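Local shape tokens:
==================
===
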Amino acid sequence: MKAWQVTELGEPARVLRLADVPDLQPGPGQLVVRVRGAAANFPDVLMCRGQYQVKPPLPFTPGVELCGEVVAAGDGVSGLGAGDRVLGSPALPHGGFAEFAVMDANDAFLAPDSLNDAEAASFYIGYQTGWFGLHRRANLQPGETLLVHAAAGGVGSAAIQLGKAAGARVIGVAGGPDKAEVARALGADIVIDRRESDFVEVVKEATDGRGADVIYDPVGGDVYQRSTKCIAFEGRIVVVGFAGGQIQSAALNHALIKNHSIVGLHWGLYTEYDRKRVLECHDALTRLAADGAVKPLVSEELPLEKVADGVQRLADGTTVGRVAYVAQ
């Protein structure tokens, strides 16, 4: 079988190599799936660089999110079998940027019929992260104002749709006119091109000086620091990640003065400690997808041979929505 392999660490375009590797076999509690689609995520970039908290042994195949068809099940697997179309995270080092991948059965969920393979491959991490971030951690309420940074990216685009589905007023921040138009098409009520306008001032003006009730921040660094200037009384800043490359420090005296909360979100811990809630989340998201309230924005579908290029463009910040490998 063919798979992209990382044999040394560095920029994706330099270190990813398409290789012939041995066929996979499922271990106890595992599935082997034929990959039908695999979305590129920023953790794939960080793993190539050796900067992610998960560091698979070299060589490894990245691709942390996929849609696949079950072809074999190991001992102890029940409820899923050959022919089932599933989505979820693969069991590294055998990731999704390959013809076949291995999944732990507990990390595999039936893919919604309402989504095609590329969309289903983009439906797990970003939407689960958004659902837990907005509902579990921030307790977003109808009528509240939600500010979403990196609104045209995979995580941000999911947060816009989930915020609208929850009845919130959504303000999206994106970099450049093309990305701003994507955020607008996703349903954001107000879109800010951060290259043209100061989001702090726009948020204050749009909320009559009150600020945003919830700020969803996958960027970090200066974006987080400036977000504290437009957070509402009793607002919640959800720290999702640090795609901007800088891990910020929180001024706790400011949190005290403004009565706002700084809420961390490590979605992967729910898969480890509270799988029942992950299942509930998947069921809720499947219903939203069936109703048309949410749908991953897949801007590019790539053949296997073009995966390294797509992951590098994600690393460079030039992609919008989701870029996904789709089996031909």
